[in-house]
Amino acid sequence: MAPRYLKTGTKAAKSSSAPELDVASIVKGVIDDIRQNGDSAVRKYSEKFDRWSPESFKLSKEQIDAAIAAVPKQTIEDIKLVQANVRRFAHAQRDSIRDFEIETQPGVFLGQKNNPISVVGAYIPGGRYPLLASAHMTILTAKVAGVPHVIGATPPIAGQIPNTTVAAMHLAGVDEIYILGGVQAVAALAIGTETIRKVDFLAGPGNAFVAEGKRQLFGDIGIDLFAGPTEILIITDGTADPFTVATDILSQAEHGPDSPAVIITTSEEVGMKSMEIIDELLKDLPTAQLAGASWKAFGEVVVVDSLEEAWKMGDEYASEHVQIFTKEPREALEKMTAYGALFLGEKTCVSYGDKVIGTNHVLPTRKAAKYTGGLWVGKFLRTTTYQEIRNPEASGELGRLCGRAARAENFEGHARSGDLRARKYFHDNYSWISNYEASATKLSKI
Length: 446
Description:
Layout: E1 4-7, H1 23-37, H2 39-50, H3 61-69, H4 73-96, E2 100-105, E3 108-116, E4 119-123, H5 133-145, E5 149-154, H6 163-172, E6 176-179, H7 182-191, E7 201-203, H8 208-217, E8 222-223, E9 232-236, H9 242-253, E10 261-265, H10 268-281, H11 288-298, E11 299-303, H12 307-317, E12 321-325, H13 331-335, E13 341-344, H14 350-355, E14 381-389, H15 392-408, H16 412-426, H17 431-445
Parallel strand pairs: 4-5, 4-7, 5-6, 7-8, 9-10, 9-12, 10-11, 12-13
Antiparallel strand pairs: 1-11, 2-3, 3-14
């Protein structure tokens, strides 16, 4: 039977009376201005968008120390504990990536090295919520990868330095902190100004303007992901607790009014009950305005006939976060491949991944999980190769092969590099070399 939809999202279009913002054009204008005018343009947009224009956007050591001192002791301890979890997992990832060298044939050595990016920018959002967890995920992960210089940027909150976020950035190992938000921050980092050092790579989530800024700047610098709204998919059978399903759906729907929240279940009873509880919980959820809008416009509940169908449908959604509430949740590891992160069983949840458990929360959205994973230590490494031939015979044999292979593609210059070594080590005859030697001899006699 075909899947049965107990709920589909309205995906309501914006009111025709609401002004449409041309995000791409606005972002391009800011980037072009910063390219041309540097610091003065950065300050102009910081004043315009954040009402923030300090003497220096970069925090001094004294300002950082003061920010940390203003954070409650328990919060500092919690930050350290969470960062220990993130660091432990990041080190395990780094240990899984190795340099190697192999001898592919006598005297031919090929190798791989993993070199960290030199300068990384980390954007830590702070508009709707102070997302200090993003400091752990970007700055700390880059540092574990071996990045020597990480520059962090985060916006002011209500015209003030966000002390808790600054503490998290500092404890993660950041080298410079700028209180600077939005497109002006990512553009300044990507382009470089009179006072802000240009980065080679930019990581971290942000709003639609930040995401568009990263998209337009990609190529000038590397970026982690093209990010979209947060997504959650929960796959259940009849053993799932509808109250847990409802609670966890809303935990992600509160990210914003456009966050897809989907339930795929083999149990119509679980689906119906989950919907009833979601409606009830929205009555007193402090973030109900956002979560409710998201659930109304992008919430779906789908009933399927079997878990096999659920796994296949889950891979089609390719959601950022996938929670598995089934009798045997680890089955999803074998049956599914397209997801940003899996959360197996009701003892875990996406919120743990977002905030505390240790895996990275910068993950692919908008079906990008079909072709990429999320942010990890490897994103901050450049995997490079090297070659060395120590055996003359091996060089000569490869020279003969290169000559034939290159001429099959009409690349005569490539072929001659191979010919030269075949001549040098095997004394092969090539007319182009003989002609050159004859001409060189005549010239030497003049």
